[in-house]
Amino acid sequence: MSTFMAEIVGTMILILFGGGVVAAVSLKGSKGKDGGWIVITVAWGLAVAMGAFAVGGISGAHLNPALTIALATIGKFEWADVPMFILAQMIGAIIGAILVYLTYLAHWKPTEDPDAKLSVFCTAPAYNHPLSNLTTEMIGTFILVLGILAIGTNNITDGLNPLIVGALIIVIGMALGGPTGYAINPARDLGPRIAHFFLPIPGKRDSNWSYSWVPVVGPIIGGLFGALFYKQVFEGENSIAFWIVGVIVLAIFVGAQSTVNKVVR
């Protein structure tokens, strides 16, 4: 299997299980209806682990454009391969979302809430304040990428790394996912959002394109800063890029703080 196909398959598995659990707890008539946040966060963590187990030995199981870009920025991945990986991740995410749609085919029409249907595919903020939402996604992806890099430095029994990364995803979801639903992955959000747009889902709403940039830009900035922070602090390699991105991050934090009173539910 090529690395391109591996990223497609791994991301498809991620979305099939991740989107699937949201469908299970959200759609009318599902046996898992109202399973709650803990069920969602645990399943998403395991979804990442299963995708990584499937293709980690082939492509490294990035499954996330923010991680791919972050690794390339610090020299741990070839820039020439970045577009191919991101394309594969997007394709895999769309396929995974289509499979979730087909799995729950009989549940879309009985489910009256269009927001619940959309939530199966992509994230939405609890409070609509773009800079605060961007901040949340940046922090979540910062700790995701920093955690993945730090985990990689430990001597761990072969085969356990995906489970440990899965545990990291679980705690990110439980601790940091409340404000935005923790996309922390541009492909995880944008790919299924595109699928929601073109699938013939009965009674669906618009795909909330006005918010769609947040779970793309936030994770890219946060992941980039996480990787640069790792190189600067953990490996002691001073980089001008770290300070430039740091200033951008700080400016976003200040902007979020100064406009937070304009929050819209």
Give an overview in words.
The structure is a single chain. By secondary structure, this protein is an all-alpha fold. It has a single domain (about 5-260), classed as Glycerol uptake facilitator protein (Up-down Bundle). It is about 65% helix and about 0% strand. α3 (about 65-75) packs antiparallel against α4 (about 80-105). The N and C termini lie far apart (about 45 Å). The relative contact order is 0.17. The model has no long low-confidence stretch (mean pLDDT about 95).
Mean pLDDT level: 95
**Percent of residues in β-strands:** under 5%
**Count of DSSP H/I helices:** 10
N-to-C CA distance: 46 Å
CATH homologous superfamily placement: Glycerol uptake facilitator protein
Overall shape: it is globular
The CATH class turns out to be Mainly Alpha
Largest sheet: none
Q: Structural class given helices, strands, pairing?
A: mainly alpha
Stated plainly, the CATH topology is called Glycerol uptake facilitator protein
Transmembrane segments: 6-25, 37-62, 82-104, 138-157, 163-184, 213-234, 240-260
Family: Belongs to the MIP/aquaporin (TC 1.A.8) family.
InterPro entries: Aquaporin-like, MIP, MIP/Aquaporin, MIP_CS
GO molecular function, one term: glycerol channel activity
